[in-house]
Design a protein that fits this description.
The protein has 329 residues and is α/β, with parallel strands linked by helices. The protein has eleven helices and eleven strands. Strand 4, helix 3 and strand 5 form a beta-alpha-beta unit.
Length: 329
């Protein structure tokens, strides 16, 4: 759970729509041989002021960068001229073991996903990008995995390594198992898209609920003591509510993401309290306020959808691994 603050301030210091840490910039290396893809990725990710993006057109161009600089996330196309993306991921993880990797592919097959996860990837994204926000959400999720060391995703890598080793030794899964995994990959992609349909709770004012409902969200106003708040995906607390500090502390270790919506009248004490609670300060001008809150909520829901879908994908990989037949007697 992360807590973010959206403030109605006349500057944009530290703005980043996708959430995440703001104290130090996170570094992302994007590798693709198509200039248009590199341009799209750069423009999209650099909207977040806390992301520093480096581009490379090939694995051979990327490798010297990986030996000279620290990167948090590698995003690479699977099919590159020369060294391929799967091989690049493996070498990048050898050089920087804590690096997270996301593979870009035109089609996700059981073989390609097992190979990518076995090399050290923790996610993939289909090209062309139908929803550009998915790329940002997946990079954000990768950054959180890097900082949190989430066990289930590391287990998925280990399961994929075991499956790849068995496949390389001559064993194979039944055709039905391949079909089942590929069906799960389609379901994974669909569940990521449906991640935008989460539950949003608002404490503090009906105007915020109206703004969110107008933007297409399932938003509900609840009192600060409601137990249903802990079941929401995103909770928005307004500084106008006298209990916002108590509520923020109560939810700090609970599942929802919490957004603190500070009114123009929020005083310095509110900001200092937010810093004490390790809240993420996101500044934006008044002219942008109408769009900033829905976009922030949208990105948080999409990131949560990615994380839930990855847990299901990890389970599908484990099932595929179990289905690989033993060698014939």
């Amino acid at each position: 759970m992360r807590i973010c603050v959206i403030m109605d301030l006349p500057f944009e210091a530290g703005e980043g729509e996708g959430g995440g840490e703001r104290t130090l910039a996170s570094t992302v290396l994007v590798v693709d041989d198509e200039p248009v893809v590199l341009d799209i990725c750069a423009r999209l990710l650099e909207r977040d002021a806390d992301l520093m993006v480096t581009l490379a057109a090939s694995a051979e161009e990327a490798l010297p960068l990986l030996t000279e600089q620290r990167f948090d996330v590698l995003v690479t196309d699977k099919n590159l001229p020369g060294m391929g993306g799967v091989e690049l991921i493996a070498e990048a993880r050898r050089l920087q073991p804590s690096l997270e990797a996301v593979m870009i592919t035109g089609y996700a097959s059981s073989e390609s996903v097992v190979a990518a996860f076995a090399a050290g990837a923790s996610d993939y994204i289909l090209k062309p990008f139908d929803d550009l926000r998915v790329l940002r959400a997946k990079v954000r999720a990768a950054l959180e995995r890097r900082s949190a060391g989430i066990l289930v995703r590391e287990q998925a890598r280990e399961v994929a390594r075991e499956a790849a080793a068995l496949l390389a030794s001559g064993r194979d899964a039944p055709e039905l198992a391949h079909e089942a995994l590929e069906s799960e990959l389609r379901a994974y992609e669909e569940s990521v898209r449906l991640g935008l349909n989460g539950r949003v709770a608002v404490v503090g004012g009906s105007d915020t609920v109206t703004v969110l409902k107008d933007a297409g969200f399932d938003a509900l106003e609840l009192p600060p003591y409601a137990t249903e708040l802990e079941d929401a995906d995103v909770v928005i607390v307004e500084t106008g509510d006298p209990q916002w500090r108590t509520l923020a502390e109560r939810l700090q270790r609970k599942p929802p993401d919490v957004l603190l919506l500070a009114s123009p009248q929020a005083d310095l004490g509110d900001l200092l309290e937010a810093i004490t609670l390790r809240m993420d300060l996101v500044g934006f001008g008044t002219s942008q306020g109408a769009n900033a809150l829905p976009e922030k909520v949208r990105m948080l829901l999409l990131r949560r959808g990615v994380q839930r879908a990855q847990d299901r994908l990890a389970a599908a990989l484990a099932s595929f691994r179990r289905s690989i037949s033993a060698p014939s007697a």
